[in-house]
Design goal:
The chain has 105 residues and is an alpha+beta fold. It is built from three helices and five strands. Strands 1, 2, 3, 4 and 5 form a five-stranded antiparallel beta sheet that branches.
Length: 105
């Protein structure tokens, strides 16, 4: 499994705009893609902005490339996300998952 990590930053006064877009518009589209395994949305509030860390989980780098294209290190940021954020990273990082929670108990 591969984790694709990306950060965006929103205004404190508009702290729900990006999560709403990601969860209501982007996630349903991602769920239709082969190899997509899910996502985490993390939030850290600062005094002047809110940092969002988005971790998407993919079956393989081939699945990532099918989503992101020939340059998977470049961020895919829809116009609606750009409008909801003050700034964002133009690149992403990919991590190979070495261990994960055991869900069977």
């Amino acid at each position: 499994m591969v984790v694709r990590a990306w950060r965006g930053y929103g205004a404190v006064t508009e702290g729900e705009a990006y999560p709403k877009h990601l969860l209501q518009s982007v996630r349903p589209k991602l769920e239709q893609l082969p190899g997509f395994q899910g996502l985490y949305l993390l939030r850290r509030r600062g005094l002047e902005e809110i940092e969002f860390l988005v971790l998407t989980l993919w079956e393989s780098m081939d699945a990532v490339r099918a989503f992101a294209g020939d340059k998977p290190e470049l961020a895919v940021v829809e116009p609606e996300a750009r409008a909801a954020l003050v700034r964002f990273d133009s690149t992403v990082s990919h991590y190979e998952v070495m261990a994960a929670p055991n869900r069977a108990r």
